[in-house]
């Protein structure tokens, strides 16, 4: 009956080994006492666990009784530095005529400390720093038991310490754990019953002599402080303690810990050092690793200034710490802090640097999930940091994650009020666009790029053009690609007032020449490129000549193929000149293009020399690091004074801005449609006459003999023949000719002056109301005065111009 009761208390939810929801794996070489430490796996989710087993041939075996005490204590005592309990059960098996009882304890996955030390292989300063961190954790656990719970562990040693996957040290082996009551002389407990389980070498003098009176008069930490000293000796000597006398050998103990070590092993129980004071006062625990992990654990209690300072130093500090501890301890802490918002934006730099030390598989498991969650953050500094470092993790993102989770959050930056954030969002598309679906590219990305190509920031317009050239191969084949590229490059980029933007348009056309058929090259591309050969900017002119040569070579190839009867190229597109299939050497400063060496080569020959250096936004950065390498503008002359020559193409814009972002969701337009040319309003006859007069030479024409004029006319007729323009029906009189209506002989505008009005204003008496005398028409007088003033100003301008001539 009693046995069944004990099984019910210890067994938990399981009634047998078959019902244990865990698979027992291989055992470790060592474990505390008579326990066996196994690796294990959960049957439910496949997670790793540790399984401790203790067997006995008799249900009343003292080992089993102590083991049940350990199960009960481990289940009820909870602390970050004490092994976490998950499950337990007790199984009785019959083997022939004898029965065997086994206790199983399931805990979080851990490894014996002795095995972990061999695995890490730390040496020198890094070993001492890690040992300091581990001893600090065990000292906290012992202090919690002794000072807070008034419990005595009884056997603190190397075998009673295990290590988690995050390299945390945890205390276990609670078989002898019991309450300490110094006031009750008759008190009995596991310490009295199972003290024989403790090795003689680990017992202090009073426990070895079973002097319970002295033990009760001693402070509650006396026995465990001695055990902590034994742990320190085994740790630094690298050997298991064989005799108590070996503790006097202090050659391997660090000098900063020696004094505390001696106080822990004092022969007088009352003078032994309390573990709580050891944590607070020991110089040994003050090092970079301990301070860094401690700061991360209490991060929520720090203010923003402390956090910012700490995370800016963390990348360099991480290089000085043990690599395994950084990856298994600091990295999870940092990822958790970023995910839950307690870490500042600079922490992302440290996270990515630590992540670069992981294998690609580990990076995808430990770092990428945190990064994906950070894209939904509303913190602008976090978003900027993510975009600035996207080249470090972008290749690891899967296409599905980018299309479904990342892009929707990144796209909000296209319309952000900060020009710096808009530019970073644009640059990030070099990495993300290849992973987007055609639906996302056509339905969303192209609309945003359509708007950015008319952005107020010239650097953003330039980079938009170059981005389109680089992602052209990912656009939908057919009319969408042709329509987008030709309209974006010829209609907008080549007509931009910013010279690097025009140069980028020429470069983009050269890089995407294989996507255009011969008709588009001859009718739309070449006319627009040739116009730029007289561009005010020397770089633009140079690239325009190279582009014209390239496209003329393509046309010449088509002509040669046509002569031999091969006309297939006219409908399928013409292959570009070798060297133009690589990515554009475009105006981006913060990203490096990943790929084959051939993809990183600059365009040749059209792009040799790179007309653009890194163009960045003029807007101030959200972060402290401004964008580098400003745009290079070769022409000092203001472009407003030297307008770009108009293109002879039939369109003057590739799409309305409203089609890009503000249209309805159901619309199929993407902002890249052709539009009809805008009809310029015709000027009034008087204004047309003035404009015509402005184009005439100011100097007086030299009179020529009539015979010479006749000869010239005959030569023109012979030269132009039937294609000569017909003679104008009306002839204008010379500016110096006198007429009957001339107001002044010196007025050059008299010949084109408006005739005097032939109608008169009707008096107001013609209508209803009281009759009044007719008033002069003031509107007519004002118009006449303005005409006279305008004529005087034009006359003065022509006189000045004639003086220059």
From TrEMBL:
<dbReference type="InterPro" id="IPR021133">
    <property type="entry name" value="HEAT_type_2"/>
</dbReference>
<dbReference type="InterPro" id="IPR051177">
    <property type="entry name" value="CIK-Related_Protein"/>
</dbReference>
<feature type="compositionally biased region" description="Basic and acidic residues">
    <location>
        <begin position="659"/>
        <end position="672"/>
    </location>
</feature>
<feature type="repeat" description="HEAT">
    <location>
        <begin position="367"/>
        <end position="405"/>
    </location>
</feature>
<feature type="domain" description="Protein kinase">
    <location>
        <begin position="1"/>
        <end position="285"/>
    </location>
</feature>
<feature type="region of interest" description="Disordered">
    <location>
        <begin position="597"/>
        <end position="714"/>
    </location>
</feature>
<dbReference type="InterPro" id="IPR011009">
    <property type="entry name" value="Kinase-like_dom_sf"/>
</dbReference>
<feature type="compositionally biased region" description="Polar residues">
    <location>
        <begin position="613"/>
        <end position="628"/>
    </location>
</feature>
<dbReference type="InterPro" id="IPR011989">
    <property type="entry name" value="ARM-like"/>
</dbReference>
<dbReference type="GO" id="GO:0005524">
    <property type="term" value="F:ATP binding"/>
</dbReference>
<protein>
    <recommendedName>
        <fullName>Protein kinase domain-containing protein</fullName>
    </recommendedName>
</protein>
<feature type="region of interest" description="Disordered">
    <location>
        <begin position="748"/>
        <end position="773"/>
    </location>
</feature>
<dbReference type="GO" id="GO:0004672">
    <property type="term" value="F:protein kinase activity"/>
</dbReference>
<dbReference type="InterPro" id="IPR000719">
    <property type="entry name" value="Prot_kinase_dom"/>
</dbReference>
<dbReference type="InterPro" id="IPR016024">
    <property type="entry name" value="ARM-type_fold"/>
</dbReference>
């Amino acid at each position: 009956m009693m046995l069944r009761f004990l099984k019910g208390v210890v067994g938990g939810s399981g009634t047998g080994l078959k019902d244990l929801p865990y698979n027992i794996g291989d055992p470790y070489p060592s474990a505390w006492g008579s326990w066996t430490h196994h690796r294990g796996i959960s049957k439910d989710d496949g997670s790793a666990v540790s399984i401790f087993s203790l067997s006995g041939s008799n249900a009343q075996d003292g080992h089993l009784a102590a083991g049940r005490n350990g199960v009960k204590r481990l289940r009820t005592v909870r602390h970050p530095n004490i092994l976490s309990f998950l499950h337990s059960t007790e199984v009785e098996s019959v083997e022939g005529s004898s029965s065997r009882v086994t206790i199983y304890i399931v805990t979080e996955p851990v490894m014996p400390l002795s095995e972990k030390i061999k695995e890490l292989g730390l040496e020198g300063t890094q070993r001492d720093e890690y040992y300091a961190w581990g001893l600090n954790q065990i000292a906290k656990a012992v202090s919690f038991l002794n000072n807070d719970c008034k419990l005595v562990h009884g056997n603190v040693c190397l075998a009673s310490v295990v290590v988690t996957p995050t390299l945390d040290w945890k205390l276990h082996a609670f078989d002898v754990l019991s309450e300490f009551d110094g006031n009750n002389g008759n008190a009995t407990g596991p310490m009295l019953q199972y003290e024989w389980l403790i090795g003689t070498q680990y017992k202090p003098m009073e426990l070895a002599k079973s002097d319970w009176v002295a033990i009760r008069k001693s402070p509650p930490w006396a026995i465990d402080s001695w055990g902590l000293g034994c742990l320190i000796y085994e740790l630094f000597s690298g050997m298991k303690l064989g005799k108590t006398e070996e503790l006097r050998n202090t050659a391997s103990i660090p000098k900063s810990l020696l004094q505390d070590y001696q106080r822990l092993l004092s022969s007088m129980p009352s003078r032994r050092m309390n573990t709580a004071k050891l944590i607070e006062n020991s110089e040994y625990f003050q090092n970079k690793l301990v301070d860094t992990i401690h700061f991360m654990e209490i991060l929520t209690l720090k203010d923003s200034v402390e956090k910012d300072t700490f995370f800016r130093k963390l990348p360099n500090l991480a290089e000085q710490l043990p690599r395994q501890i950084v990856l298994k301890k600091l990295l999870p802490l940092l990822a958790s802090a970023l995910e839950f918002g307690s870490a500042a934006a600079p922490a992302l730099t440290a996270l990515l640097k630590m992540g670069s030390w992981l294998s690609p598989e580990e990076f995808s498991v430990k770092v990428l999930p945190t990064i994906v969650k950070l894209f939904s953050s509303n913190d602008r500094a976090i978003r900027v940091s993510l975009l600035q470092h996207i080249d470090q993790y972008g290749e690891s993102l899967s296409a599905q994650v980018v299309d479904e989770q990342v892009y929707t959050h990144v796209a909000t930056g296209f319309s952000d009020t900060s020009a710096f954030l808009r530019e970073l969002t644009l640059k990030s598309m070099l990495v993300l666009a290849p992973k987007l679906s055609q639906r996302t590219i056509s339905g969303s990305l192209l609309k945003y790029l359509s708007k950015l190509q008319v952005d107020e920031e010239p650097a953003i317009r330039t980079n938009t053009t170059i981005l389109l050239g680089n992602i052209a191969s990912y656009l939908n084949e057919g009319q969408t690609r042709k329509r987008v590229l030709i309209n974006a490059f010829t209609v907008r980029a080549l007509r931009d007032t910013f010279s690097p933007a025009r140069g980028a348009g020429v470069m983009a056309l050269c890089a995407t020449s294989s996507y255009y058929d011969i008709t588009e090259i001859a009718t739309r591309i070449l006319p627009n490129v040739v116009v730029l050969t007289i561009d005010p900017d020397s770089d633009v002119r140079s690239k325009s000549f190279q582009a014209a040569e390239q496209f003329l070579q393509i046309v010449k190839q088509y002509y040669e193929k046509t002569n031999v009867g091969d006309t297939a190229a006219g409908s399928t597109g013409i292959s570009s000149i070798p060297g133009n299939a690589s990515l554009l050497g475009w105006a981006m400063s913060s990203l490096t293009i990943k790929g084959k060496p051939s993809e990183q080569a600059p365009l040749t020959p059209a792009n040799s020399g790179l007309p653009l250096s890194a163009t960045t936004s003029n807007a101030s950065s959200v972060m402290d690091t401004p964008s580098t390498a400003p745009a290079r503008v070769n022409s000092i002359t203001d472009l407003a004074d030297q307008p770009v020559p108009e293109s002879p193409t039939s369109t003057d814009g590739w799409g309305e801005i409203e089609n890009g972002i503000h249209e309805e969701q159901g619309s199929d337009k993407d902002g890249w449609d052709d539009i009809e040319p805008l009809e310029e309003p015709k000027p009034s006859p008087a204004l047309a006459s003035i404009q015509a007069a402005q184009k005439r030479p100011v100097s007086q024409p030299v009179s020529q003999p009539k015979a010479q004029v006749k000869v010239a006319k005959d030569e023109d007729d012979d030269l132009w023949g039937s294609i000569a323009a017909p003679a104008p029906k009306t002839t204008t009189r010379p500016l110096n000719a006198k007429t009957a209506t001339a107001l002044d002989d010196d007025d050059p505008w008299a010949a084109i002056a408006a005739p005097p009005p032939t109608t008169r204003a009707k008096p107001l008496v013609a209508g209803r109301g009281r009759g009044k005398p007719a008033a002069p028409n003031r509107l007519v007088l004002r118009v006449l005065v303005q005409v006279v003033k305008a004529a005087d100003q034009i006359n003065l301008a022509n006189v000045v111009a004639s003086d220059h001539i």
